[in-house]
Amino acid sequence: MPQFDLSTAASQIFWLVVVFTLLYMVLWRLVLPRMAMVMETRQRKIDDDLARAERLKNEAAGVLADYEKTLAGARGEAGRLMKEAAEAAGREQAERLAAFGAELAQRTGEAEARIARAAAEAEGNLRAIAVEAAQQVAGKLLGQPVDKAAVERAVAAAAGRTGGGR
Fold this sequence. Notes:
Oligomer: single chain
Order of helices and strands: HH
Structural class: mainly alpha
Number of domains: 1
């Protein structure tokens, strides 16, 4: 094996140092700066992406907070509108109830007035019938005609004693 031949070992070591130095220089001047540039570019892109992600996360949190605030406002507004609608319905119901009560009171008053007129008319008719019946009965019992004015006074006096006169 030629590698283990001691007569060529010095030249092999020389060429090893020369090739290693050239390779080191090529790597140090050409390859490593490009690799560093690629790594820096990659790191900047990663940092930019992370910053952008953080910014988007903050924006999303802001949008979520705005949404929740708007939703809470809408719920409050809906509650207020429902309360107003309930109050309006209650007022309308109270107004209708008051109108119905007034109409009922008016109808009751009219009915009481009709009943009072009918009672007065019936009482008048009853007195007339009582006077006529008393006049005929007294005439038959006495055998002679009886004065109508006297019978009317007697019926009025009898009605006053029994509480029939108002």
